[in-house]
Design a protein that fits this description.
The complex is a heterodimer of chains A (115) and B (114).
Chain A: E1 3-5, E2 10-14, E3 19-21, E4 24-26, E5 32-39, E6 46-52, E7 60-61, E8 64-69, E9 74-79, E10 88-96, E11 104-105, E12 109-114
Parallel strand pairs in A: 2-12
Antiparallel strand pairs in A: 1-4, 3-9, 5-6, 5-10, 7-8, 8-9, 10-11, 10-12
Chain B: E1 5-7, E2 10-13, E3 19-24, E4 31-38, E5 42-50, E6 53-57, E7 64-68, E8 74-78, E9 87-94, E10 104-105, E11 109-113
Parallel strand pairs in B: 2-11
Antiparallel strand pairs in B: 1-3, 3-8, 4-5, 4-9, 5-6, 7-8, 9-10, 9-11
The chains are: A mainly beta (115), B mainly beta (114).
Chain lengths: 115, 114
């Protein structure tokens, strides 16, 4: 079974600064996806960024980038130039690369961006 | 295009009753998954449907069931509600097979059991 660990329950960052959220996972699989999802107070889970395990290059999406260390089973999210709208719960998630497989989520990190 | 639509947004039920939640996926998405989110247990996978067939099931009691219709819309049902079933229920849809490009979630149904 897969596990996903987010060791930072809460974090705070000043607007326009950079923050890094940590995530580690445990799996015996070789072929999988890793995700970061954002859940604002509206409750909808929004995909921030996705990484395929076989891709060496770290994924980036505008101000969001990841540091994927496959051997260390680490998948951190860096948010640059933080904005007030980035305030939300952030969940790291794992999924085996097979049809119909489930997402396994971490416990989440609550990020507050201060003005 | 329209997103994943979950109805109702809020629901209050009494212990022992049953409830049905609905999820309409993005047009063209044939896979629908359900998740339960609670403060204590976090996000947990309930089940996944594709082409009206349940392909995967999480570790929940038989009181939790679901189905998918030919238009890919899905419903989940919880019978004999318990206080612990109070949660946010999230639905996610996706394309299947080689076209898979991730899950899109709805805004959830907040169920309160009293």
């Amino acid at each position: 079974a897969q596990t996903v660990t987010q060791s930072q329950p809460e974090m705070s960052v000043q607007e326009a600064e950079t923050v890094t959220l940590s995530c580690t996972y445990d799996t015996s699989e070789n072929n999988y996806y890793l995700f970061w999802y954002k859940q604002p107070p509206s409750r909808q889970m929004i995909l921030v960024i996705r990484q395929e395990a076989y891709k060496q290059q770290n994924a980036t999406e505008n101000r969001f980038s990841v540091n994927f260390q496959k051997a260390a089973k680490s998948f951190s999210l860096k948010i640059s130039d933080s904005q007030l709208g980035d305030t939300a719960m952030y969940f790291c998630a794992f999924m085996k690369k097979s049809s119909g497989d489930k997402l396994t989520f971490g416990t989440g990190t609550r990020l507050a961006v201060r003005p | 295009k329209a997103g994943v639509t979950q109805t109702p947004r809020y629901l209050i039920k009494t212990r022992g009753q049953q409830v049905t939640l609905s999820c309409s996926p993005i047009s063209g998405h044939r896979s629908v998954s359900w998740y339960q989110q609670t403060p204590g247990q976090g996000l947990q996978f309930l089940f996944e449907y594709f082409s009206e067939t349940q392909r995967n099931k999480g570790n929940f009691p038989g009181r939790f069931s679901g189905r998918q219709f030919s238009n890919s819309r899905s419903e989940m049902n919880v019978s004999t509600l318990e206080l612990g079933d109070s949660a946010l229920y999230l639905c996610a849809s996706s394309l299947a097979g080689r076209d898979w490009d991730g899950y899109t979630f709805g805004s959830g149904t907040r169920l309160t059991v009293v």
